[in-house]
Amino acid sequence: MALNIDLHSHSFESDGELPPAAVAARAHQNGVDWWSLSDHDETRGLAEAAEAANRLGMGFIPGVEISANFCEKTIHIVGLNIDPQHSVLAEGLARIRQTRVDRARKVAQLLTDCGITDAWEGALSHVDNPNLISRVHFARHLLDQGHVKTLQQAFDRYLGDGKRAFVPTQWVPLAQAVQWICAAGGKAVLAHPGRYRYKPAQADALFSAFKEAGGQGIEVITGSHSPAQYDYYARVALSYGFEASRGSDFHAPGAGRVDLGRMPDLPANLTPVWHDWI
Ligand code: AMP
Ligand code: MN
Ligand code: MN
Ligand code: MN
User: Fold this and answer.
1) 71, 157, 192, 218 - which has most CB atoms within 10 Å?
2) What dihedral angle (degrees, nearest 10) is formed by the CA atoms of 193, 256, 80, 263?
3) pTM score > 0.70 for this model?
4) Fold designation for 5-92+170-247
5) Which of 127, 136, 152 to mutate to test the pocket of ligand 1 (most atoms within 8 A of CB)?
6) Could you list which residues have their CB under 5 Å from ion ligand 3?
């Protein structure tokens, strides 16, 4: 049987709900053999995650999911097997976290304009890591206050792309995010390519630009993809010469499509991103 490898997940150090050690415990309980914590723009959970994984006898790959831009849209690039101490990466991520704070101030103002009370304080009350504020924290406030019935509805009505409290944001160009990951000794993996709403020609441009920048892998099996998308992105990986990754993108128990480790194996004809580590 193939090893159960899950290289994409979140803790409360970004927009997940559990502490890093609890994510490790849940991964282990679900039969994961090798696991990566890959919080958004933040590495401060990695030490606790590594320690917990070691205690459980589970393999650990330090990760991060960087917010970046391509063609005016936000894309996510997972950096795997990174050295979180590397100054180029650490300083870059610190800048993105500051961009998050600046964006959050604007989101709070737009929500206030929509008649939402205590938007800033409410979102902050859901933040565990004071350096990392996410739209998800605003979504939790909207849910708390009864403005929406689900987190997804908060995105559909207020926070999603083009909605009333959406703030277009300049993160960092795709190539720069890849450079930071490579500088820190890691491998850059394009996260959930099926989630970006690019036209086909733009999607091709994204894969080419990512490859050109030094990107090595794409997520094929992710909680964000349908079975048809597993097949589609397996073909993309083959045709561009990308390695393939597998990750749940777990955020919280009961949230999202899949739990830690509960996805199909990578198709056997693909080269896994972990081939030289595991
Ligand atoms: P942020 O990185 O602060 O812009 O927040 C984006 C995060 O919100 C994603 O990583 C998901 O965890 C979560 N999310 C949930 N639903 C949506 C949605 N419809 N669009 C974008 N993000 C969503
Ligand atoms: Mn997230
Ligand atoms: Mn993502
Ligand atoms: Mn993610």
Assistant:
1) 218
2) -90
3) yes
4) TIM Barrel (3.20.20)
5) 136
6) 76, 191
